[in-house]
Amino acid sequence: MKIATFNINNVVRRFDNLVDWLDEAQPDIVCLQELKAETSAFPRQALEQMGYGAAVVGQRSWNGVAILARDAVPVVTRTALPGDPADGQARYVEAAVRGVIIGCLYLPNGNPRPGPKFDYKMAWFERLIAHAQTLMSSSAPVVLAGDYNVVQTEADIYQPHSWKGDALLQPQSRAAFAKLLDQGWIDALRAIHPDGPLWTFWAYLRNRWPADKGLRLDHLLISPDLGERLLEAGVDRWVRGQAEASDHAPAWIELDL
């Protein structure tokens, strides 16, 4: 089973890019973030014609997440992260697909900091940690995939000092990610590729894509029982080089299920 995560950065505008990648990569499950479209505007019918069922939580102009499943219909278990009923941002959807629980998440960016956006980021992170512990305790096979908006280590960014003040690199952000991993989650990409860059994001500014000045923001965390079933992992860098591309590239894993 091939599972991928992709911050599409506007699913309507970049639908052709998405289709090209789906045709080439043939993933079985896809977690999409930053749809920037209401649920009703999501291209569900076109994707169904390609063989993908979808679970969608959209939001106009901002955020939005979706889970695609090839030749299957995701059985939705959650349409929001628990812990704050007043939170109206579309950042989490969870579904069962072929016996695996898939959590698709778009963690808040947190900039500018300090301020309410960073406070929201950290509060959301704590809610994620709490829910992840519940999932871990369930003993179900789980994949938590998405744009975590955290640069975990210096090895996950081309040049740390250029981003020194950014919310992505703050000690609090990194500590929260470490706290999540301490529950027993496996960083699947690093498990396969322990050394070297695994960029998944290149900003549009300052020629960063051609210069390969990237960051690793997109992660697939798997429950321990899936660790022994992990076969391969990678990043489809070529997608970032397409015309009108998202500033992210898809990251993926293969599991022997």
From TrEMBL:
It is an enzyme of class 3 (hydrolase). Its cofactor is Mg(2+). Residues 4-248 form the Endonuclease/exonuclease/phosphatase domain. This is Exodeoxyribonuclease III. It comes from the Bacteria. Belongs to the DNA repair enzymes AP/ExoA family. Its EC number is 3.1.11.2. InterPro entries: AP_endonuc_1, AP_endonuclease_F1_BS, Endo/exonu/phosph_ase_sf, Endo/exonuclease/phosphatase, ExoIII-like. PROSITE patterns: AP_NUCLEASE_F1_1, AP_NUCLEASE_F1_4. It comes from Caulobacter hibisci. CDD domains: ExoIII-like_AP-endo. GO terms for molecular function: double-stranded DNA 3'-5' DNA exonuclease activity. Keywords: Hydrolase, Magnesium, Metal-binding. Pfam families: Exo_endo_phos. The keyword RNA-binding does not apply.
